[in-house]
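ok so for the tutorial part 2 we go from a plain amino acid sequence to predicted structure tokens. step 1 is just haveing the sequence, like this:
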Amino acid sequence: MNAGAPDPVRGPRTGRFWLVTAVALLTLAATVSLGRWQLSRAAQKEALQAEIDAQKNLPPLDQQAFLALGDASAEMHRPVRLHGLWLAPHTVYLDNRQMHGVPGFYVLTPFALEGSDQTLLIQRGWIQRNFTDRTQLEAIETPAGLVEVTARIAPPPAHLLELGKADSAATTPAPAGSSLIRQNLGLEAFRAETGLPLRTDVSLQQTGPASEGLQRDWPAPALGVEKHYGYAFQWFGLSALVVFLYVWFQFIAPFRRARLARRG
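step 2 — the prediction. this is what the tokens look like for a chain of 264 residues:
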């Protein structure tokens, strides 16, 4: 090798070297930033889960305290203990709901609060689907007369995607004589359909052991914390790959080529 020739490893850096360096630094900054953002989202979701758990562990609101709430959604997930009447003729079965991975129905019944003009939609529990005849519903019991219900304040029932349909279930009443089985149920539409003084800001999820033919192992809200950790791992893994490739192609590979050139 000519003694006056530039060292391929330590010699003057070319424009290509600095261009690759700039691109690597920008890519590294972007991937690290995105990984940290995913970690921050995971931390936010964990804090939200902690708030939900704290609400669930508060003592139940009695009926007077619940009715005095200006905004019941501010007490989301808090237990309540209410008295009233089940309005069984208006019971609805929401299809394609799962419990422990088994498809079935959520059973929803309006509940008229004693001593008030308010009616709440209560998600009473879950029953399994009849796999032979989808329209054959398992028997449930609906107590008559004044009853006490222990439940949690919950958002309105979640809507599932209906392929080929606009979300009409959330905006228009169901036709008269429509099936008890629904894919979705909008509270505004259900209020108009039934003529009940139904609250549309919240619903309730009845709690307690299985009873009346219903199971109540309600799934926890899907906050997606694990998803954010998975994305963060991917972004930090990409950052590590960028560093490895940069060091390899900018330093190690030229050094190996230089050694081979000296031997030649």
